[in-house]
Amino acid sequence: MSPVDSLVAQITQSPEYKTLAAEAHTRGIAADVSLEKGSPDKATVARLRGWVAEMILPTEAFAGRSPYSDEPIPVLVDVERTRGVKAAGLRLLVRLQVCPFVLEDGEEEEALMITCLASFTNERDAWVTHGAYEDARALLLATIERIKGSPKLYQILMTRILQHQVKPLFAKSKTPLLTAQGRKAIHPLPAAFETIDVEAGNKPWKYRSPHIVTVFKWVLDQIDAPLVESNWPLIIPPILTLLDDASVECKIRGCESLLSLLKKTHSSLLERTGLGEVFHNALLPLLLYLPTLTPEEESLLLLEVVYTTLIELARARHPADGQRYLRLKTLDQVFRYGILQGYSHAGEHVKIANLLVQKMTSMIHEMGIHFVKHLNRVLPILSLILMAPLGTAYPPLLMAAVQTIQTILLYAWPRVPFHKADILESLVICWHKIDEEKGRTQQLEIVRQRIEETVGLLAAISKKDASFGEEIQALADADSRLQQLLTGKEST
Questions:
Q1: Per-residue model confidence as pLDDT tens digits over 400-439
Q2: Are the C-beta atoms of residues 450 and 430 closer than 8 Å to each other?
């Protein structure tokens, strides 16, 4: 018996193969995949791999369901069992990978297999287990390493996946903002009215084949800048469709896909196509997806990726020093519309407040000294956080506020003397509350140390102001408990 005969015989007798065969019977899929008598050839192995791939692709039961659909809801009798079936299929593909016939797959079979494996590259997906993710990742790495040896084949396969797997599923979800060439429409037509009974039919990528969104993101992670430009009309419509969808999860996926694209897109391409502005306008409203209209956990996930994407978009649109004014103008709009307005709407939600304060720090790093125009609005927010009576109940927010003040001191130090009293007051009150906290946690202890560092930084910036040093010393003398914070000496 040849090595190939032996390998295929072992596979067809394996528990994984029997698991898939039982699943095929349950789903009413033809399971007549027994190998023909005699030595297995290329067609036999390809048929076996194709059947395994068909069995492990996610079904409609894992997809979302349109609230307007009258179709019966697909039921997963046992989610863990279904996930186990897909993991078993991936293990079979791992074993088949060593078969020499696999190296002779045609373009169509290779593209289909890559699509199948790429479906398991996001652990957030309901059909993905950690084991399946690791198996798929290992197989994809081996496959990509092999096909990259032939750059032409690599380009053909990536284009084929976009053309034949992704495009058909997004074909009905058209946006009036784009031309057929993936450029900004100069005079966009009003969006077509979509009746509720056709909503599900127009979004097969969401309601029938949910794995394609993960595949699309994986392809964007793999392709390079020249391949992005040559496939531009195939890439842009799915991204804008995801951003425009009502589902927060789809918007998150759209932001993640756009972020991957921006890292490989030259500013000249965004300028020629006019899509920089289109992307910006599509992302900006997402900054106000806040509680209570948006569930807090969904809002946190969305805001995290939206801010990152908007910052990257500003860099990609205006990378040159000569375009710094335009970049700062864009960031200024994001800061006003997103962080300041967002905090006024949802600042009472402590996790949202924590994320927004963290994004303040990121935005200050990007804007530098030009951030000072917002100083009068930001410092009161940070002071209220540090002086809140119950602030010690959530140390991460205190830490974020202290780090933001440190960043302000570093970038906006010329304006600090005008605000040093307010900054010092909030730091002293927060430090004192932590110092008096009984059984304070390690997190609070770290915040306390950061406050001491920040007071030292403030003192260094105000070193030329003799009156500030005298005020510090007078405050320390008046309250011995503040000796360590203000002078670095332990109180006696």
A1: 999 999 999 999 988 888 888 899 999 999 998 998 887 7
A2: no
